[in-house]
Amino acid sequence: MADFGAQDVAALRKATGAGMMDCKKALQETAGDMEAAKDWLRKKGLAGAAKRATRTAADGAVAVVVDGGVGVLVEMTCETDFVAKGPDFAGFLDALAAQVSRQGAADVAAQAFEGTTVGEAVEALAAKLGERIELGRVECFETTDGLVDGYRHVQNGRGTIGVLVEIGGIDPADPRAVEVVHDIALHIASAAPRFLARDDVPADALDKERALLEELTRNEGKPEAQVPKIVEGRLKGFYKDNVLLEQGFVRDPKTTVASLVESLGKGAEIRRFARVKVGEA
Q: What's the burial of 96, exposed, middle or buried (CB within 10 Å: 0-12/13-18/19+)?
């Protein structure tokens, strides 16, 4: 049995910044040899993990991969844009997105990846680059009877906004359908809709907006009898701002996104979309 005590564990933690249980495990694996335990923690990407865990990973990047009927969006966060646009971080993110496009988005952290798991590989990358790095949001769209497309907005050397959109009820080989789906992906990146249709707006969000508009209308001195009608009119503006199908298309604001989709033929519909912007919840 390894010969070490609680003081040794505490000393190792102070020297490496690793978690208490990780330090205990390291000493067990190295028969209480302090220097060997430090190396063990470094190899596992655990040295400095506790210190990094107290920092905020508010920067990062997104990768988007579209291959046939499969679209993937993967976000990784870090502390600075310097790391986010560096070759180690960017290469890791691209490789991970390619893997998710092949294996799907189920339990990504536990997937095998380069001889270890994705979660452990992320920890090792954090140790190597000296920043808190985390796997962020992951989206995977797959269709057999429609079109999936995506878009990645690049700013300051890395992807800051990622979009996926799926449209069904169309001919995937139709060049105009392909063009429109991509245009809608670009629109989503720019217009930042929160919901696909009115029915997707949560009741609590709608109640909150209605209450705010009622207070605003009353503060403007409108007659009480007219408040409900005025509020309902103003709610249309909320829908236009937040509901994808009711937004004016960015390239032709007089045309709604719903009308643009309808132009592809009867039965054409946006089934779902995802938009991820680094730094936003």
A: buried
